[in-house]
Amino acid sequence: MITAQELSKRYNGTTVVHDVSFTCKPGTITGFLGPNGAGKSTTLRMITGLTRPDSGAATIDGRAYAELGNPTRVVGTLLDASAVHSGRSGRATLRIAADLAGVASSEVDRVLELVGLSGKAADRRVGAYSLGMRQRLGIGQALIAQPRVLILDEPANGLDPDGIAWMRTLLRDFAAGGGTVLLSSHLLGEVQATVDRLVMIASGRVVAHGTLDELLTSSGVVVRATNMAALRTMLDRVGAAHHLQDDGAVLIEHDDVLDAERVARLASQTGILLVELRPSDRAGLEQLFFSLTGGAEPPTATPHSLEKVR
Amino acid sequence: MSLTLAAPSQRPTRPNTVPFLRLLRIEWRKSCDTRAARWMLAVIGLLTACATVVPLALPAQFEQAWQAYLAPAALVLALLLPVISILALTSEWGQRSVLVTFTQEPRRARVVAAKVLSGTALSLLGSAYAAAVAAGAMALSDTLGRQVSWDLSPRYALGFVTFVLLNSLMGMAFGALLLNTPAAIVLFFVLPTVWSLLSYGWLTKIGKWLDTAQTFRYVLEADWHGHTAQILVSIGFWIVAPLALGILRTTRREVS
After folding, report:
1. Which CA distances in Å does A117 have to A27, A101, A218, B14, B130?
2. Which among B40, B41, B97 is the top mutation candidate for probing chain A, defined by the most A β-carbons within 10 Å of its own β-carbon?
3. In A, which residues are within 8 Å of B102 by CB distance?
4. How far is the C-alpha of B96 from the C-alpha of A85, rounded, in Å?
5. Which of A21, A148, A304, B71 is the most buried (most CB within 10 A)?
6. pLDDT tens digits, residue range A208-233?
7. Nearest by CB: A65 against B14, B106, B255
8. What element of type H or E holds B222?
C-alpha cells in the first residue's frame, strides 16, 4: 500500500510537484504516467525519502519511508538503473543488497536466475552492462528481500521487447500475489499493457487517475467510412467533438453519449457505409495523454514519435 | 533515579532496523571490492613494502631501528590510504549509487558513521601491515649481520598508528564535506603544498596551528609535548569540523 498525500516540491521558486495525491492498493499495478519533466521522478524520490517534500507526506504500508526499519524488506525500489557502482559485478551488487536486508546469500543466485543475469553476466562489471541488463539488475535488487511493495522509475527503459514482456509477467505475478506496484513511464504503450490503474501527471499536477477501463471508456470512438466527408458532416450535425487522425480515421472524443452503437445507428440512417468502428483503445489513450498533459502534439500513433516527446 | 526515568523515555523500537555492525561490514566490503579500490590497495601494499627497503638498503644513513623503518612506510600510508577513504565517502555520489544506498538505509548519518569506522579499521590494518613488513625488513637486516635495535617504545608505536589514522580521517572528512572525488583528492594533496608556499608573515603563525604537514609530524615523531594544542587545533579544523559539516550536508542533500 502506497499513499501520497498532497506532495509538493519547489526548486528555486518553480513548483515541480504540486499537491500530488494518490493511493496504490495491494494487488494492483499503478502506472505513473506523464511526459519527461512532469515531476514523476521527484514524486517517487519523495515517496522513498530521498527528497524532502515542501509539504505533504507519503507512506508505505502506513509508515513514512524513513520510519521503515529495514526498508528493502518492505519496499523494493528501482529509481535509476544506471545509479549502480560500475566497478562492481552484478553478483557483488546483489550480494550487498541481500546482506544489508539480512536475507540469505543463496537468494542472490535465485534472483540472478529470475532476472536473467545468471551465468557469465553475473560476474561481469556493471560498467560493461547494457541499459537493459542494468534494468534487470535493478529489478533484481528491488526484489531481493521479497518486499510487498515495488516502486520502479521507468523500468522498461532500455529493455528489448522480450524484456518488456518478461517484466510484464513478473509484475503481474507480483501483484497477483498481493503485492503493490507503482511504476512510472512516459511510454503509453508500455503502461497500457502492464498496469490496471493510471495516475497521469503533467507539469507537476495529477491530471487524471483511475482504472485503465475508466480512463479508456471516456476516451472516444474511432470511426472510418467509405465517405469520410459525409461522416464528418454527420458528426458536425449532431455536435460531436471529433477530429481526423493521421491514419485517416476519425476520433470522436470523450463522448459517453455517442458510443459505438449510436454512431453505427446514425451512420445507417444517413446511409454512410462504415468500414471501421471501435472504441479507441491505444490511440484513445494517447489522445487522452496529450489532451490531459497539455501536449500540443497531435495524436500521432507510433510509439517512436512518442519517445521523441520526452 | 535515572534508571526509573529511562524506561518511559525510550523511543519506540523499530524491530527490523539494519544492525549497525551489518552496515559497517557492508561499507567495509564496498570500500574494498571495486576495481579502483583493489588496484589502490595493491599499489599501497607494494609501495609500503618498497618504503621499508630504503632503510634496509642504506644502513649508513638510517639507524637500524623501528622508527627508521616505520617512518617511510607511514608517509606512504598517510599519502595513499586517504585516497581509499576519500573514495569510500565520495564515489557513491559520483556513481550515483547513493540513490540505492540511502533507500536501503534512510538514516544517512549511520551510513556515514559506518564508512568512517570502516576507514578507521582500514587505516589500523594498514598500520599493522606496515609494522609486519618493517619487522620483516628488520629481520632481514638482522640476518645480514647488522646491529638492529628491536626496542619499540609504545609512545612511538602510538604516534605511528595515530599519524596514519589522522591522515585517513582527514581524507574522509574532506570526502564527507565535498561529496565529490576529484575535489576532495585535489584538496587533500594540494593543502600541504599551499601551506609551504604561503608560509610568510602572519600565515606562518597560522600555519603552526593548521599546517598538518607540521602538526601531524609531531604526532608521528611522538613529539607532542608542547605541541598538543597545535595538534588538537589541526584535528578540530581539518577533521572534526569538516566531518560534522559533512554529515549535516549528507543528511540534508537532495539525492537525485
Report:
1. 27, 20, 42, 34, 41
2. B97
3. 49-50
4. 8
5. B71
6. 888 887 776 656 788 899 999 999 99
7. B106
8. none
The predicted structure's pLDDT at residue A281 = 61
* Rounded Cα–Cα distance for residues A175 and A199 (Å): 17
Confidence at A245, pLDDT banded by 50, 70, 90: confident
Judge: B97–A84 Cβ closer than 8 Å, yes or no: yes
Rounded CA gap, B216 and B222, in Å? 10
Q: What whole-number distance in Å separates Cα of residue B227 and Cα of residue B209? A: 9
Other C-beta atoms closer than 10 Å to the C-beta of B170 total 25
Residues of A with Cβ-Cβ distance to B256 under 8 angstroms: 41, 45, 50-51
Residue type, A158: G
Note the residue count of chain A.
Answer: 310
User: Could you write out the DSSP letters of every residue in B145-178?
Assistant: T---B----HHHHHHHHHHHHHHHHHHHHHHHHH
B224-256 confidence digits (pLDDT tens): 888 999 999 999 999 999 999 999 999 999 887
Q: CB B104 to CB A71 under 8 A?
A: yes
Contact A156, A306 (CB under 8 A): no
Which residues make Cβ contacts (< 8 Å) with residue B43, sequence separation at least 6?
A: B80
Give residue B211's Cα distance to chain centre.
Answer: 17
What pLDDT, on the 0 to 100 scale, is given for residue A215? 75
pTM of the model: 0.82
Rg (CA), chain B: 21
pLDDT of residue B3: 40
Report the C-alpha dihedral over residues B101, B104, B106, B109, rounded to 10 degrees.
Answer: -50
Rounded Cα distance between A167 and A183, Å, is 11
Contact A32, A201 (CB under 8 A): yes
Q: How far apart are CA A252 and CA A305, in angstroms?
A: 22
Query: For B173, how many CA atoms within 13 A lie in the half-sphere containing its CB?
Result: 19
Smallest CA-to-CA distance from A131 within A168, A163, A157 is with A157
Count of CA atoms in the C-beta half-sphere (13 A) of A176: 7
Contact B104 A79 (CB under 8 A): no
ipTM score of the complex?
0.83
Residue labelled with grid coordinates 559539516: B245
Contact with chain A for residue B16, Cβ under 8 A: yes
What's the pLDDT score for residue A246?
74
CA quadruple B195, B196, B201, B207: dihedral, nearest 10: 40
Q: How far apart are CA A309 and CA A267, in angstroms?
A: 36
Calculate how close chain A gets to B37, using CA atoms only, in Å: 9
End-to-end distance of chain B based on CA atoms, in angstroms? 47
Q: In the structure, what pLDDT confidence band is assigned to residue A284 with cuts at 50, 70 and 90? A: low
| Strands lying side by side in the sheet with A250-252 | A242-244, A250-252, A221-225, A274-279
Cβ contacts of A159-162, under 8 Å, gap ≥ 24: A159/A132, A159/A135, A160/A132
Q: What is the dihedral of CA B144, B147, B153, B156, to 10 degrees?
A: -70
- Using CA atoms, how far apart are residues A70 and B39, in angstroms rounded to an integer? 33
Q: What is the pLDDT of residue A306?
A: 37
